[in-house]
Amino acid sequence: MAFDQATIFKAYDVRGIVPDELDADLAYKVGRALVLYLEPEQVAVGHDMRVSGDSLAGAMIDGIRDQGVDVIDVGLVSSDALYFAVGKYGYDAGVMITASHNPPAYNGFKICKRKPARSRWTTASIRSATSRSAASFPNQPSGATSSRKKCSLPT
C-alpha cells in the first residue's frame, strides 16, 4: 500500500478504507504481528456484517495460524460478543473485524487481550511489524501445527 499507515493505526485499533488503506495483505500481517507481540496460545476472531468482513477475517486467521497459534473463528458477531467470548471462554486474545460507526467503505481491527499484557503495548508495535514482507516473519517451529475451530456463541 502506498500511503502512510500511521493514519490508520490508532492506540488500540486499526481502521481504514477498504481496499485503499486496509486490505487482506495488511490483515494477514497484523495477524502475524499480533502473535509476536501478545504471545497468545488461542485467538478468537469475529467480524461484523460489512461486505469486506469475511475476506479480512480469513486473511487475519491465516496470519495468526501461520505464526503457529490456534484460532477460534466465532464468525458474524457483535464486538460485545467477541469480548464476552475472550473473557468467558478464556481465549488469550481476540480480534474483532469491524469499523464500528464508520461509513460502509471502512473496516478495521479491534484487538483485545484477556489478561494484561506483560508490557504496555499499542498497535504501534504491531504497525512496525507490518512493514515487513510476509516472508520475513519468523516461522513456526518445525512440525508445529495450528488449528481453526468454527464456534457459534450461545444466544
Written description of the protein model:
With 155 residues, the protein is of the alpha/beta class. Helices cover 31% and strands 22% of the residues. It contains four helices and six strands, in the order βαβαβαββαβ. Strands 1-5-4-2-3-6 form a six-stranded mixed sheet, sandwiched between helices. Helix 1 crosses helix 2 (53-66) and helix 1 (24-38) packs across helix 4 (123-130). The longest helix is centred in the first third of the chain and has 15 residues, at 24-38. It starts with 12 loop residues before the first strand and ends in a 5-residue tail after the last strand.
Topology (SSEs and partners):
Blueprint: E1 13-17, H1 24-38, E2 42-47, H2 53-66, E3 70-76, H3 79-89, E4 93-97, E5 106-113, H4 123-130, E6 148-150
Helix pairs in contact: 1-2, 1-4
